[in-house]
Amino acid sequence: MNKRLIGFIVTTLVSGAAFASEVPASVDARKCKAEYPKASLLNEEQGAVTMAFLVSAGGDVMESKVEKSSGFKNLDKAALKALSTCKFKPGTKDGAVAQTWTKVDYVWSL
Prior knowledge:
Elements: E1 7-11, E2 22-23, E3 26-27, H1 38-42, E4 47-55, E5 61-68, H2 73-84, E6 88-89, E7 91-93, E8 96-98, E9 100-108
Antiparallel strand pairs: 1-9, 2-7, 3-6, 4-5, 4-9, 7-8
């Protein structure tokens, strides 16, 4: 079985002073691995998907969604599924651990 390590970046967006005291959740890229979908490998599909995750104060994903598609449904689904099972470092609000949204860019490349 052909397994590939896919890189991804956790991005932090702070918009306006009202959110300055909020630090979004983050994830350790080394602990989250996704397997390239077989059909996507055969079709040489590549791309980047941007996802948003609502992470609980305990670090679990409560909700997830694709914000910008890679252009390939199989890649989007595989990235969303893989990241949804990862343990995140919880975010904070006003210095206290809290439920927060975070964005993750997941890049699939051959």
